[in-house]
Design a protein that fits this description.
single chain, mainly beta, 15-stranded antiparallel β-sheet, 4 helices, 15 strands
Length: about 350
């Protein structure tokens, strides 16, 4: 893993907001983003699930190898599975399709009448991905002001995973490193994008500022939600939810490959969820860390703030249990605490 790339993404989170601004603290108390859900002993489980469902939707994926990390893949490879982490997986899939070595070489050597180049690549199992590069300055290299439009034509890279819809990537900067290493800044718009993995289905709409760094063994991405917000509608067996990440929301994920792939996710800002009937704010104190072999985070801590000063502190004690601490009267102290199994939270 290239540590300088990790540092670059961490440092660039403030620069990723080209699609919208906002504080990273998650504690915005303005009327427009004030929490509307009072957190109680009755709904604290649902609030926790909304946060964790968001964490898994953002982070959970196997971005490097189809067999849990035994065979690392470079940016030039297109086989990426998404068993739950639809945002990370789809964004990475799009960046791979857009900036893979084939496309970089193509735009540098293309001879064409117009400042555009369109290509279609077959996906691993069926379907295809169409990439259109708009080289606005006719520099024949990816540079500031260029755009890439990706259309996923029922792209299936495994028997369970299918992507449809599109993404529009506006480039601010692209930096290539050794091999296929890549750093990228810009903005990204999701256009009726859908992804399914087994029984899980997700749809994404909205725009984000994005900073990403990719190597053969690591993937780090910082997303800043833009003015149009970002909506993720997901459904799985027995549960469905619509989560709207509001302008200024900042999401980061850093995934590393190894014997077991793991990822760290932070969420800072406000969101609404249909499952809880309104808005809360979330601040990450310690990134939520999850391994590909686990169904839930094994470490990390977040504080969720609700209406009238109510708060919920969620601390992962391991991949099987979590501590919930509730400040139900808004007086600044957690008067209730309990440890429960992750899989009992509803």
């Amino acid at each position: 893993m290239k540590t300088f790339l990790i540092g670059a993404v961490a440092g660039a989170i403030g620069l990723a907001g080209c699609g919208g601004g906002g504080s990273s603290s998650g504690g915005d108390s303005s009327a427009a983003t004030a929490p509307t859900v009072t957190i109680t002993a009755t709904n604290q489980g649902a609030v926790t699930r909304a946060v964790i469902d968001g964490e898994r939707a953002i982070g959970q994926s196997r971005p490097f190898a189809a067999n849990g990390g035994s065979q690392a893949q470079s940016i030039g490879s297109t086989r990426i599975s998404l068993p739950g982490g639809v945002l990370q997986s789809v964004v990475q899939r799009g960046l791979v399709a857009a900036f893979g070595s084939r496309h970089s070489a193509r735009i540098a050597t293309a001879t064409r009448q117009a400042n555009t180049d369109t290509s279609t690549d077959l996906c691993g199992v069926s379907g295809s991905t169409t990439t259109t590069i708009s080289d606005t300055d006719n520099s024949q290299t990816l540079s500031n002001g260029d755009t890439l439009t990706l259309t996923f034509n029922q792209c299936r890279d495994s028997s369970d995973d299918v992507i449809g819809g599109g993404m529009i990537i506006a480039i601010s900067s692209v930096t290539s490193g050794p091999g296929d290493d890549l750093q990228f800044n810009g903005s990204l718009a999701f256009v009726q994008l859908s992804a399914s993995s087994g029984a899980r289905l997700a749809n994404i709409e909205g725009s984000v500022g994005v900073t990403a760094a990719i190597t053969s063994t690591s993937f780090q991405i910082a997303l800043a939600v833009g003015a149009s917000a970002l909506t993720v509608t997901s459904s799985a067996a027995g549960h469905s939810d619509t989560i709207l990440y509001e302008p200024g929301m900042q999401l980061t994920v850093a995934a590393t490959d190894g014997a077991v792939t793991q990822w760290d996710v932070t969420l800072n800002g406000s969101f609404t969820a249909s499952s809880i009937g309104g808005r809360v704010a979330v601040a990450t104190l310690v990134p939520l860390r999850q391994r590909s072999t686990d169904a839930f985070p094994s470490s990390g801590q977040v504080v969720v703030t609700g209406a009238v000063g109510t708060r919920l502190r969620v601390t992962a004690l391991g991949a099987t249990s979590v501590q919930l601490e509730l400040d139900g009267d808004g007086e600044g102290a957690y008067e209730q605490s309990k440890v429960v199994a992750w899989d009992t939270i509803r």
